[in-house]
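Hi C.,

You asked whether I'd gotten around to modeling the 199-residue construct. I have! Everything is below, sequence then structure, no commentary in between.
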Amino acid sequence: MIIKDMGLVDYGATCLAMQDFTVNRGAETADELWLLEHHPVFSQGTNGQAEHVLDLGQIPLVQSDRGGQVTYHGPGQLIAYTLFDLRRLGIGVREMVNRLENSVIAMLAEQGIEGYSDADAPGVYIAGEKLASLGLRVKRGACYHGISINVDMDLSPFLSINPCGYQGMKMTDLKSLGCALSMAQVKQQFVAAITQQMK
């Protein structure tokens, strides 16, 4: 697995780069994990319904080819894009979702925080509040997009949408949970956790 730390990047350009990578990858292409943050943007998934977008304000809304509904990305949120060949790994999309969720849950456990997943609403939650959101797209047996983990960010834009299509969904971040890990430390811990999950 090749790990790329890409910093703060544009959402649309990154999506195009993921599509290009996936379409052009071959049977021997190494899987890649892209770690990054996005400039403020709302992304609407392929199942997205307009009624879940309440008030955009000055933040752009971009159509995405991932699954799921609308969410928000911004600085202070770690995004891990998983460009993995599921066919080669011998797993399906549901199993990939489980491994992403379990990576975050394991990372939280290291900090003494109890996270959990919900089979009906993908992501990772702590005491009813959502910390991590995910959405994937599979093309030719390989997946892209991935998971976003709220580290230390302005959560107020989430009030402008029904996050992931759930009215009144409360969002949280690691800082609000009393976890003082830096973005660099969260990246390091997530890489360790997902590496363990993908064995």
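If it helps when you're writing up: Residues 2-197 form a domain with the BirA Bifunctional Protein; domain 2 fold (CATH 3.30.930.10).

Thanks,
B.
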